[in-house]
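Dear Dr. L.,

I hope this message finds you well. Following up on our conversation about the binding site, I have prepared a predicted three-dimensional model of the protein together with magnesium ion. For your records, I am including the exact sequence and ligand specification that went into the calculation, followed by the structure tokens. Please feel free to forward this to your student if that is useful.
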Amino acid sequence: MQESKQLTPLMRQYNDIKSKNTDLIVFFRLGDFYEMFDSDAREASRILGIALTQRGGVPMCGVPYHAAANYISKIIKEGRKVGICEQVGTGEGKSKLFERKIVRVITPGTVIEDNMLQSNVSNYLVCVFTDKKGWGAAAIDVSTGEFWVTEQADDISLNGLSCMLAALNPAEILLDKITLDRVKSSMMIPGSVATTIVPREESSQIPSNWPSQSVWAGKKTALTCALTAIKYINVNEPGFKDLLIPFYKEISDYLALDENAVRTLELVSQNGARKGSLWHLLDFTVTPMGGRTLKNWILNPLLNLADIEKRQNCVSNFYDNPLAYEELKVILADISDIERIMSRVGTGNAGPRDLAGLARSLAVHGALKNWFDKYGAVVPYLKENILSKITVIEDLANLLNSAIEPNPPIKISDGGIIKQGFNAELDDLRNTKNNSSKTLAELCEREKAKTGISTLKVGFNSVFGYYIEVSKGQSGKVPFSYTRKQTLTNAERFITEELKEIEDKILHAEEKILRLETSLFDSVRKHLAEHIGVMRSFAKAIAELDVYSNLAHCAKVYKFTKPVIDESNILKAADLRHPVVEACLPLGSFVPNDIDLGGETQISVITGPNMGGKSVYLKQAAVLVILAQMGSFVPAASAHVGIVDKIMTRIGAQDAIAMGQSTFMVEMKETSHILASCTPKSLILLDEVGRGTSTFDGISIAWAITEFLYKPHGGGAKVLFATHYFELTDLENKYKGIKNFHAEVQEYKDADGQSKIAFLYKIKEGAGDKSYGIHVGELAGLPATVIVRAKKVIKDLEAKKGTSVSKKEDDIVGDLFSSPIVEEIKLVNTDAVTPMQALQMILEWKKRINS
Ligand SMILES: Nc1ncnc2c1ncn2[C@@H]1O[C@H](COP(=O)(O)OP(=O)(O)O)[C@@H](O)[C@H]1O
Ligand SMILES: [Mg+2]
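The resulting structure of the complex is given below.
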């Protein structure tokens, strides 16, 4: 940065502002542009892909102010915060320098503008604090007004927090240094999320519009989080504070999905995109609220049987009543994002189009009432809920309908927002404006007749405004009531009281119209704001309607059936499918499979070749549970789901490498988390656990994990373990509740007599017998020479060992020590190695044996 004495006043002003807002990218208003300087400019030019220029040696880049929203949204999506610095003074006075200040801070967690948000995604600002034994959190979606808090006093390992963050996928997180360190070390926050260090707001002063003291008893950390978050929002968007009222939510009311499960099951995104996810597959919702609610339900399946059945019944009723669905869809199509519009109404940020959208949305009240008259029994509890609000909705709809033009301009200042007939004064002003020439012509005729001056005419100039002009020759006839304004060579100009009044009306009509429209618009907005509570719960009910009918539609489209749900330990389904994988394959080519866990079998060990369908089989079990417990039908011929409390998965290690830990370390961390926190009600998916280390290590660990999870007298978590360690199939012989399955393949000879395999994707009882690795390698296009060589090696190995490499042995330990290293020793051509090479080989073997 330059020495301050060399700086221009402007740059000094900039530096001053920037130094107080180091964590913001400052959008510094200069005329029609927002300029960024220095490090901000470098960062912004990279994020926005715009050119970097210079100003007095300082890097700089800029964007036109009218297109700023687009650029701001890009910066926010990178997890950065933007400070909007506007010219606030008049720019007069000695310095001629506009006074400037930050008028608004836009952060990823506090945006409300539609064009900076994704319509069907909640945008959470989360505040988290840990304490000695547990943690508390507040989650706020400022754009919709959703605000809840929770606390777990007894969760030293922060497992619950990790699950919660995985489900919320926050846009921004507030925390203190201690919490940040703990959360970071356990990799709970992806790097792209904005984190802000804030001091704890440890007041016991609860805002008067919040739930009473008793709710917060023993919820100190949760309250601190709520107060801290509100304080932060209040600084950035002061209007919000009173609109946000928290409720306490017990996290343990929902099925816990760990971070690995949310990601690898591809519930709401696949490699970062919505497409390819379960949510995308299921989403036929019509309203933005419906889309968000669906996502929310997928990530937060229920645990309470009665609650699940309540949802299931609604879905079932829609399923049985296709007409109800069709007719509802038409009504919902007119409803825009009421939740987000109401947030902007509440903060005074709503524009004309917001209110026009609201008008259209609320205009459905009549159709909705009719629909409930006809189909109310489909959603009994929503009927009461919505009908109890319908008079308020109707009143507001009438107000909006009479007040707001259906297709108004974007900005209030463009005018033409308030409808004709809404306000007499406004109509009058508009008439005045429109009739100005007529009124003047009338005045002119009247004055001519009164004075008998035939040359009298009415004119206008910018200096004197409206005037009456009389030619010099006739000026003698001018009455006393005229006031002379100007004398020309052959004419005199006058004004009269009446002309002045008309002039006033005309000249100021436009300005008055604008002012009046603005104030009328504001009063409508304020009136709406008084009903924000009703409107929000109306929006919520609409969202639920949307999701129920949507799930019924999915059941039809994807051929789902209604599962039996109870409190048992059973997880059983016939002809179960993975809906997302199925949708990607040609029609009818997905192979359904049965599953039966929790009865005789506690743990299934599934072996089989790569690409055999093991992982898909594991995942579809989890998807079954999630769908069932969110209230949906499921992709199976029949299904019985005993309520599951947690789904924990250890699938695919590759992606975590990016976060800076070794694959194996990540794998073991996640596995230890599973072992530490599973309960008899949990479903655990272990996919190739142990792959990240040497074979011996891997087998031993996988073996020990399975034994750990096994509960000989029942009451163990349900486990599906896919593995390519054939050795694990021995567990079946030792433990009654462990059962072997394999992904079936068919071996056949092709035209050239080469043996090939076909994947059948059928998961069958019993251990398979071979690892088909070489065949898979062949299918994957390994060079023929490699395949031939591999086949030769395996043949030699088998011949030398006198048995198949992967044959079962009674004692797994014996099997281990008869394997790879011994085989390698046997293979060494002692005539062809130098003593040095031999020594190196021995060292290498020793290392592997000792590792
Ligand atoms: N039940 C099935 N029916 C049809 N195709 C399947 C089935 N299961 C898996 N597949 C196909 O096989 C591929 C590999 O499946 P996957 O479960 O990943 O194999 P594995 O885990 O055994 O290596 C999938 O991407 C899918 O295209
Ligand atoms: Mg797999």
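In brief: Confidence is low (pLDDT under 50) at residues 655-660, 802-817.

With kind regards,
A. P.
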